[in-house]
Amino acid sequence: MTVLPSTAPLAGVHVLDRCRESVRPALAEAVGRLHPWVGEMAAYSFGWCEVGGTPVAASEGKGVRQALAVLGAEAVGGPIEAGTTAAVAVELVHAFSLLHDDIMDGDTARRRRPTVWKAYGTGPAVLAGDALFALAVETLAAAPGSGGAVRLLSVALGDLVRGQADDLLFATRPWTGPERVRPKEYRAMAGHKTGALLGCAAALGAALGGAPPATVAALDRAGRDLGVAFQIVDDVLGIWGDPAVTGKPVHGDLRERKKTFPVLVALDTPVARRLAELLDSGEDFGAAAALIEEAGGRSAALREARRRIA
Ligand code: GRG
């Protein structure tokens, strides 16, 4: 395994790049403590390595959660180490959740390369995910005064499981009729699956930075709301994003019967029946996407989400 050196400049860069650059050495140090094989899978998932001498298209991920952790600590005037430790912990949990999520969904591509389970096998990928989870808890628990922080992370982990369970169950429910998934249920699912870790990131940075509980709780709430918005954009990208940019498989969410935000919006319009037929037949997801687009024109929220990512 080769850990690629950083090449990005440190000044005048986007905030996500700045935070990623500042966190990478501590993250690499933590990953370097893993079993070498497990560490290689972790480094592969972070986009740092070559596998068996073959270069992989390296894409590190946006680093939204680690940036929130760094910014949470900065916002309360905490020391740099507070933000870094929180960032490493949340990024490890994020990577762990992606590894396991890709196995559950059978997704074969992420960050513009084969998923870890596709490259290394399912068993090894489960193990690598477990190792990242354990490393996150160890990292946080080792920080000075981290009792409250460990609790914050534990609550977020429980919420992640809750959101993932709902997401998986939603896929088994019909598109239309009384058993259909309601927007309120989607909101709760996204708040857990995605919002919990974004909220936890900002809250952990602030907590380790010495902020009072009310500040920590406020950042947690704000991050959770941001996470729901983030999930909606992720859903939009899952249907109309450029796979070369997003690294997501074409129409993967539709194929997996995911009850994503654009689909739920479209199912609340007169095209619902035709859309349900198209999605159930699984023959033409392009036509389904076009129908969702047509119906989505009626939703201000969806129009705005698409305008912002255009
Ligand atoms: C916590 C014990 C425990 C289990 C986890 C697998 C699982 C249960 C939850 C899945 C959570 C999950 C994968 C949510 C998806 C959130 C999401 C929008 C991921 C994509 O995030 P980006 O766009 O990815 O920030 P990058 O690649 O940029 O890092």
Automatic annotation (TrEMBL):
Keywords, alphabetical: Magnesium, Metal-binding, Transferase
PANTHER family per record: (2E,6E)-FARNESYL DIPHOSPHATE SYNTHASE, GERANYLGERANYL PYROPHOSPHATE SYNTHASE
Origin species: Streptomyces cupreus
Family per similarity comment: Belongs to the FPP/GGPP synthase family.
PROSITE patterns per UniProt: POLYPRENYL_SYNTHASE_2
InterPro entries noted in UniProt: Isoprenoid_synthase_dom_sf (IPR008949), Polyprenyl_synt (IPR000092), Polyprenyl_synt_CS (IPR033749)
Protein name from the UniProt record: Polyprenyl synthetase family protein
A GO MF label: prenyltransferase activity
GO biological process: isoprenoid biosynthetic process
Phylogenetic placement of the source organism: Bacteria, Bacillati, Actinomycetota, Actinomycetes, Kitasatosporales
